[in-house]
Design a protein that fits this description.
18% helix; Rossmann fold; alpha/beta; seven-stranded mixed barrel; Elongation Factor Tu (Ef-tu), domain 3
Length: 271
């Protein structure tokens, strides 16, 4: 028996989709604890969901089942999978959304969801979250062996999504460092695919030249966006140890005119 199912979707909370998935789960396992990671992932944004899953998973108890439904290919030939890693189980579509998290935690077993006896009947063409993913996660939480879900496949057989994370021990001063926007939160803060080992790895108070979509901006390195003047741009390490660009009381993504996938280059000047 498992204690927790953690849900991550792009369904929002206006429509009944999340509530219906939870109801299906609870009918199968009334004792399970359901945790909402987020249901406000930007619609269809596989990359945003993959980032949130990657940076969130380690804060959950060992044995948590992650139920991830950001599934723009629902009803197509895309596969549904269950992945067992060193510490967790992941249930979701094979579209790359699970990939960074499962690789980071270490894959032990991958199964294609094929056992229709586990599904809610009839299975709709447009709501596999309710009819396939939720009941499979619920049965797994009751102790169903993962090999009962379907045939085993290799890690090389699933869809990859690679953030190409740049891991640095410290920022190189006076050298151009380029990265990719991997997430924009509701405040417009821009997370880059550049990761540092700790919150002290960034020299604070340095002037930074930012090049985004052929436009130039200037910022300062800081411990947090609130330590620069209101409306100014800050470069800091976010709570997940990724480099992030923010505007104090403003929206950095709008200011820089960037979206997920865009390239940003940084030049941190000497003091």
């Amino acid at each position: 028996m498992y204690k927790y199912i953690a849900m991550l979707t792009d369904f929002g909370t206006i429509d009944p989709y999340v509530g219906l998935m939870k109801s299906v789960i609870l009918k199968i396992n009334p004792s399970i604890n359901i945790i909402d990671i987020s249901h406000d992932i930007s619609s269809f944004s596989i990359r945003a969901a993959a980032y949130i899953l990657l940076v969130s998973k380690d804060y959950f108890p060992q044995g948590t089942i992650f139920l991830v439904v950001v599934d723009p290919g629902v009803g197509s030939k895309r596969r549904a999978v269950v992945v067992k890693t060193r510490n967790y189980i992941f249930v979701g579509p094979d579209n790359g959304v699970l990939y960074p998290a499962i690789i980071d935690d270490g894959v032990l077993d991958i199964r294609v969801i094929e056992n229709s006896k586990l599904f809610l009947k009839p299975v709709s063409n447009t709501f596999h979250g309710r009819d396939i993913f939720a009941p499979v996660a619920a049965w797994l939480s009751r102790g169903l062996p993962i090999d009962s879900v379907g045939r085993r496949i290799d890690i090389n057989d699933i869809i990859e999504l690679d953030f190409n994370i740049v891991k640095l021990s410290s920022i190189i001063i006076d050298k151009t460092l380029c990265g990719e926007v991997i997430y924009v939160d509701k405040f417009g803060n821009i997370a880059l695919n550049i990761r540092l080992p700790d919150f002290e790895s960034l020299p604070y108070g340095r002037r930074v030249k930012i090049i985004a979509n052929d436009r130039i901006f200037y910022a300062h390195t800081s411990r947090t966006f609130s330590l620069v003047r209101r409306g100014d741009i800050a470069l800091y390490i976010n709570s997940f140890k990724f480099l992030e660009i923010g505007v104090n009381m403003g929206n950095a993504a709008e200011r820089l005119g960037v979206n997920i996938g865009d390239k940003i280059c940084l030049e941190v000047e000497n003091a």
